[in-house]
């Protein structure tokens, strides 16, 4: 059986402890950084019995699947998302398995961005390396209100961090999220407008879906304080196109820290968010962490082994199993 793992542009998958689980299989790891065309993917995947996808880096659609008659399995790291046409996989008899996610690394990165952005560490360090001493004045986070939109595993973790840093927490989201926040001793915002207006630091922690895509508008951002910080380690598409830059240029909010972009990988050093003096940007590092990778790929490799052993697990499209004799 041939397994293909695309998009390892960091050249790290073979260094993971869990990679040894694939010993005995023919494994090809691809290292392209730029997204490949459908023709290129069809050629590279032509002999693959299974694909192991790194999060959402490769798009799998009906046009590509039609050109991969040998493909039997797609093992997704983490959860299946919109990059993968699940219905088309089922129609082509391709089984899709999925794994777990972890809130640890993205929550820690969000907190790192908050502290760095508030203390303005990057410009201070850059100036220091150029021979300058104490060029700016940062802010401590104690006493500042942390707004959290999306009180799930990551949001709840951030709320606990905030408590340790003496920050009040204000939550917006579904009725269930707000009720959970209040049960944990936090405040639920009285309205969406109040949420944006009252938060000193506002973190977006929503899943991207049809209902959350472009949920944050320029009007929402315009309610924020002139010295507020917007943090987004979730998905760029949660914010309406162009709204963040428009808001920053209008002075509300005063600052942003972002780990996600509409088109990734972002390789243009002149992108306006990278060049903006009041934006701290990182290259989608939220899930890029060794223990997280061991979890993501460990699950994905285990699902490959289970499938070829004839006992598939964590199947996202069980209808694709019907009529198969190889699992």
UniProtKB/TrEMBL annotation:
SUPFAM superfamilies on file: Formate/glycerate dehydrogenase catalytic domain-like, NAD(P)-binding Rossmann-fold domains
Keyword Flavoprotein: no
Superkingdom of the organism of origin: Bacteria
Domain called D-isomer specific 2-hydroxyacid dehydrogenase NAD-binding: residue spans: 112-286
InterPro entries: D-2-hydroxyacid_DH, D-isomer_2_OHA_DH_cat_dom, D-isomer_DH_NAD-bd, NAD(P)-bd_dom_sf
One Pfam family from the record: 2-Hacid_dh_C
Keywords: NAD, Oxidoreductase
Domain D-isomer specific 2-hydroxyacid dehydrogenase catalytic: 23-313
GO molecular function, one term: oxidoreductase activity, acting on the CH-OH group of donors, NAD or NADP as acceptor
PANTHER family reported for this sequence: D-ISOMER SPECIFIC 2-HYDROXYACID DEHYDROGENASE FAMILY PROTEIN (AFU_ORTHOLOGUE AFUA_6G10090)
Family membership: Belongs to the D-isomer specific 2-hydroxyacid dehydrogenase family.
Name of the featured protein: D-2-hydroxyacid dehydrogenase family protein
Annotated source species: Pseudomonas mosselii
Biological classification of the source: Bacteria, Pseudomonadati, Pseudomonadota, Gammaproteobacteria, Pseudomonadales
């Amino acid at each position: 059986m041939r397994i293909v793992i695309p998009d390892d542009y960091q050249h790290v998958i073979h260094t993971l402890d869990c990679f040894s689980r694939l010993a005995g299989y023919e494994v090809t790891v691809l290292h392209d950084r730029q997204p490949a065309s459908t023709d290129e993917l069809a050629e590279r995947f032509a002999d693959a019995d299974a694909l192991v996808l790194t999060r959402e880096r490769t798009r799998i659609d009906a046009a590509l699947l039609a050109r991969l008659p040998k493909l039997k399995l797609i093992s997704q790291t983490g959860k299946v998302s919109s990059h993968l046409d699940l219905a088309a996989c089922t129609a082509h008899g391709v089984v899709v398995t999925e794994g777990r996610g972890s809130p640890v690394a993205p929550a820690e990165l969000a907190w790192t961005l908050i502290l760095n952005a508030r203390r303005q560490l990057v410009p201070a360090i850059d100036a220091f390396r150029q021979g300058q001493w104490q060029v700016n004045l940062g802010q401590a986070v104690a006493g500042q209100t942390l707004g959290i939109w999306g009180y799930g595993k990551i949001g709840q973790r951030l709320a606990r961090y905030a408590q340790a840093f003496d920050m009040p927490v204000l939550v917006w989201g579904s009725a269930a999220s707000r009720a959970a926040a209040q049960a944990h001793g936090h405040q639920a915002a009285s309205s969406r407008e109040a949420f944006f207006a009252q938060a000193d630091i506002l973190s977006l922690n929503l899943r991207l879906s049809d209902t959350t895509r472009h949920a944050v508008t320029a009007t929402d951002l315009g309610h924020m304080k002139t010295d507020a910080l917007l943090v987004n380690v979730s998905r760029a598409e949660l914010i309406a196109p162009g709204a963040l830059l428009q808001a920053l240029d209008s002075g509300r909010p005063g600052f942003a820290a972002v780990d996600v972009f509409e088109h990734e990988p972002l390789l243009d050093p002149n992108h306006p968010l990278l060049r903006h003096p009041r934006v701290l940007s990182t290259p989608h590092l939220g899930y890029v962490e060794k223990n997280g990778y061991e979890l993501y790929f460990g699950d994905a490799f285990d699902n490959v082994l289970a499938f070829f052993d004839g006992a598939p697990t964590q199947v996202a499209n069980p209808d694709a199993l019907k009529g198969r004799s190889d699992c």
